[in-house]
Amino acid sequence: MSQFWKPGGERPQLLDDGEGGVLFFSPSASSSSSSSGFGYGSIDKLRQRLPVYKYRTAILYLVETRATTIIVGETGSGKTTQIPQFLNEAGWADGGRVIACTQPRRLAVQAVASRVAEEMGVKLGEEVGYTIRFEDVTNTDKTVVKFLTDGVLLREMMDDPLLSKYSVIMVDEAHERSISTDILLGLLRKIQRRRPDLRLIISSATIEAKSMASFFRSSKRHQEAGATDLGPSKEPAILSVEGRGFNVEIHYVEEPVPDYVQAAVSTVLLIHDQEPAGDILVFLTGQDDIDAAVRLLTEEVQSHGKKSHGLIVLPLFSGLPRADQDLVFSPTPRGKRKVVISTNIAETSLTMEGVVYVVDSGFSKQRFYNPISDIENLVVAPISKASARQRAGRAGRVRPGKCYRLYTEEYFVKQMSSEGIPEIQRSKLVSCVIQLKALGIDNILGFKWPASPSSEAMIRALEVLYSLGVLDDDAKLTSPVGFQVAEIPLDPMISKMILASDQLGCAEEILTIAAALSIQSIWVSGRGMQKELDEAKLRFAAAEGDHVTFLNVYKGFLQSGKSSDWCRRNFVNAHAMKKVIEIRAQLKRIAQRLGIVLKSCESDMTVLRKAVTAGFFANACRLEAYGHNGMYKTVRGSQEVYIHPSSVLFRVNPKWVVYHSLVSTDRQYMQNVITIEPSWLPEAAPHFYQQRQLGPSIH
Ligand SMILES: Nc1ncnc2c1ncn2[C@@H]1O[C@H](COP(=O)(O)OP(=O)(O)OP(=O)(O)O)[C@@H](O)[C@H]1O
């Protein structure tokens, strides 16, 4: 049975609800443990006033005596920033050991590490550091508290399978159930058996605490009643931290809104007009929505409308260059109000000091994969109640706040699902399988997951990896290709494309393409000005397709001296181009480490198209019916797909193409499309495509 604690006393008292249930604190806005008398004092005083502080002794006692502690607490209760400090103060980082705290998102890792360094009065990168993909701000001799993405911790296992330098690993925001979190939980469970000294903390605002506890519970044989001389008890403890930050008043719309972007913009203007000072954080779904909202608000500001006087409008999404992300966290000038328009990257762990108002569209972009058709879509889908609470929790962190939900209360109560579906059950598993293989997990189908993925999805992934030449007949990583692909921290299809470009002599161009494919779009959103955007695209359009068009835009951008003005005139997203340059520089470093020769193919686009095919052959499609927007079928699954209107090949009807991704609206649309020759497919993946499968295409 799980055990519960209440605060107070040196040695915490056991609290049991009698039914093995978890004592969740009500998410309603009515209570506020720290709002009264919370003045601005020293950092120590602020720390002591956080709800989690009262549980300091209980947490340390549990970590001492239990292998796994599950901590459930409201947003803003202080889990992320305080628990690693408690552990450090209690000596868990003595003797050269390190305390790790993982987050699903890079932005949260950076922000939380800076905050904890500030609270501890140390320089970021010394006692407190962080590591995210492509960026390591730690000091091997000094760092005692390290924040990192769960993906990076998985990569660290490749060099140190038992994660031996860590004394405690805190997996934070576990409720998000990202693929990397789930893989990590599965592997940590294995590591625990070999390292009784390792302690795990799983923390979240809303987590299925009991199912998580049973996942970490050992078999009966290993169970113990309490701590013994042989080590900590294997029985996981559940601690529910009661109390929250400041009051957040929730407002709902009375009627469903027809256009959430427009509704978000109107709500921002209304708040600005009617509410006292305080920044606004708006949650939309992706770069396209965000660009549209930023434009609508900026136009309003530029027209000097009274309603928007003093507004500073800033976008926030993962593809944003570092300097622009930093703007979001910089203090708001006196007399101004910042409006940050974000994807769900701002949903968890972040504290933006000035934010008093949150506007929640109720949607986010989510991945959905169908293993039968082998199609993965990124679709705009309703969020869960857990996400809605996280979003509201971005207000009320340093003072009371308000959250405006752009959906009705009835919808929230009756229709919104309480938790999202774990990402592992709705994603393609190619990257996940290669990671497990690289970690020496041979029996992938027997791996114990917190939530099992479908076996069809597993088999599909094994099949693709085999065709990519990454796995051999015994389903082991091939040498060198498999090991190299596993080493590049990108989608294996992109990694394979990069390796192929070495042999084909076009790595210079392919690195640019790989960088452009890893951001959402290099164009500004077409909302409301599609015609101008289409005309601008024509200036760069290449007959071969979008990948070569990227190269033309990239050249133009460099020739303009990376000018924002050039971007504006050409409807190119300046933020996105700066990010492409950043990512390309990182990829170049990786390529050099792998010994890839950075050669240019100059104007030979055939080798470049062959390199793309070497990675993306599984996404090959054949034209089935000419038309205004011709109908294609995927070669493997015979699924009906169409070229997306944003592609330069829209309406061109090329006979054979490969695409980078699919998006589903009224139909399945291919995004980022390039023309190929069918004879390249069996060349690139002989096991995947036999010549007879390809058949004749229409002429
Ligand atoms: N950068 C910051 N500036 C000012 N206050 C901060 C900052 N970061 C954290 N805080 C304060 O510490 C509190 C606790 O933050 P913390 O991230 O530890 O909470 P949490 O329980 O992990 O919540 P969540 O799950 O929402 O991230 C915040 O509500 C805020 O009052």
From TrEMBL:
It holds the Pfam family HA2_C. It comes from the Eukaryota. GO terms for molecular function: ATP binding; ATP hydrolysis activity; RNA binding; RNA helicase activity. It is an enzyme of class 3 (hydrolase). It comes from Linum tenue. InterPro entries: AAA_22, DEAD-box_helicase_OB_fold, DNA/RNA_helicase_DEAH_CS, HA2_WH, Helicase-assoc_dom, Helicase_ATP-bd, Helicase_C-like, P-loop_NTPase. It catalyses: ATP + H2O = ADP + phosphate + H(+). This is RNA helicase. Residues 60-225 form the Helicase ATP-binding domain. Its EC number is 3.6.4.13.
